[in-house]
Amino acid sequence: MKKKYKSSVYKTIPALCIVPLFLFGILMMAICGARLSTAMHQQAEGRLQAIADSILLTYDTMYPGDYRFVKSGKVAAFYKGEKEITGEYEYLDRMKVAVGAEITFFYQDTRMITTMKDAEGNRLVGTGANSIICRDVLEKDHEEFYHNMQVGDGYYLGYYRPLHNEDGRSIGMLAVSMPADEVHRSINRVRIPLIVLIILGMLLTGLFASVYVRKLVFAMNGVQRSLSSVAKGELDHEPGYEVMSRNDEIAEMGRMIIVMQNSLRKLIERDALTELYNRRYANVRLQNMFERAREEGTECCVIMGDVDYFKRINDTYGHDTGDVVLKEIGRVMKQNLAGKSFAARWGGEEFLLVYGECSLEEGVLHVQKLAEIISGLEILSKNGETIKLTMTFGVTSTDGESSPEEVIRIADERLYAGKEAGRNRIVAEGSVE
């Protein structure tokens, strides 16, 4: 009897565990697949929005002024300020190659400038936008995302934003889109291996005793928590010890989650060109640092820096050389961060430096060293000319009582004062060094 009972237990426990785990696995795959799909779509949406922000900022920097539509006879032209941008495709085509997204400027519902092409390679200039998009974006004057819109023969994930002039009037739209099947492939590249590993993990649990099965369930719960955190955008919640201490497929899943977190974090937090923090994530870091400074009674030093004569570099040597300049400055800033500090690309050629537990005087010393290193850089252009760089900096500090927006405004004002004083300056407390 004893032997029969013992044999029965060893058969019953795996059977009792496999069925619930099988059902749990199906549920987890469904939840994780849905949340992963949501997270990837959100990440793609954020990426498209960031690309649109970058394009609009670049156009505002290169061509100050309002958007205008001018028609003379049968010839129609689209202007930004005094510059006709109708046939200007060099920047947009480079941006398309760099980020893998299609870019279109609309005047009202008509494509005036676009990187999209038909099967014969002709740009889809002059074609109209979907009536639903026109209603949502133009009539309601509101930015919108679309997950499965048809353009020509293809389906796209797109972000549409109204083009506003200084008087607040909407004259058209900017659209940034990517093929929908590209997003679906990205989801499947993560989801299919994840589903396979979950199934393997469930099958393996049936070979072990009830104690191991209970541990396995606990580990899989840890995986689910981590994946749920990723789906919610919480990329700092790594798999716990119950997952990473194992030596099986569950641990591999944990490592895949960490890889996925790192990849998403890089896409969400980092500027693609300089690999510094982007503006959106820098705002989060800055807010956290200010709260810590307020709680601990310490100072933070905030510095805004801008590359001198950067537009002249772009105009003279080309945007590729301008990109090299920004990459080199980003590299120098990363190598010379000190203590509790971080650097971010704030926009265009403007950079943000934040030093935690740092006084204004210490911050000035840090930025003086940085300015010396930057002034010693020698960038070689395509035509063999050597470019020397300088930067202007605005420096301020806070103990956390002021808001980040107020402190950045002061640093910006001091940066502007340095520019007005002749550039290649460090301005702190209203003084120019």
Question: Quick gist of this model?
Answer:
By secondary structure, this protein is an alpha+beta fold. It has helices spanning 2-62, 90-99, 131-139, 180-205, 210-231, 241-244, 249-269, 279-296, 310-317, 319-335, 360-375, 404-420, and strands at residues 67-72, 75-80, 83-84, 102-107, 110-114, 144-151, 154-164, 170-179, 300-307, 341-347, 350-356, 378-380, 386-388, 391-398, 426-428, 431-432.
Overview of the molecule:
By secondary structure, the protein is an alpha+beta fold. 53% of the residues lie in helices and 22% in strands. The strands form 4 sheets. A 6-stranded mixed beta sheet has the order 10-11-9-14-15-16, sandwiched between helices. A 5-stranded antiparallel beta sheet has the order 5-4-8-7-6, with helices on both faces. A hairpin with a 5-residue loop joins strand 12 (378-380) and strand 13. Helix 1 runs antiparallel to helix 4 (180-205) and helix 4 (180-205) packs antiparallel against helix 7 (249-269). The chain is globular. The N and C termini lie far apart (93 Å). Residues 1-10 have low confidence and may be disordered.
Task: List the defining traits of the structure above.
six-stranded mixed beta sheet; globular; single chain; five-stranded antiparallel beta sheet; alpha+beta; about 425 residues
Task: Break the fold down into its secondary structure elements and pairings.
Blueprint: H1 2-62, E1 67-72, E2 75-80, E3 83-84, H2 90-99, E4 102-107, E5 110-114, H3 131-139, E6 144-151, E7 154-164, E8 170-179, H4 180-205, H5 210-231, H6 241-244, H7 249-269, H8 279-296, E9 300-307, H9 310-317, H10 319-335, E10 341-347, E11 350-356, H11 360-375, E12 378-380, E13 386-388, E14 391-398, H12 404-420, E15 426-428, E16 431-432
Parallel strand pairs: 14-15
Antiparallel strand pairs: 1-2, 2-3, 4-5, 4-8, 6-7, 7-8, 9-11, 9-14, 10-11, 12-13, 15-16
Helix pairs in contact: 1-4, 1-5, 4-7, 5-7, 9-10
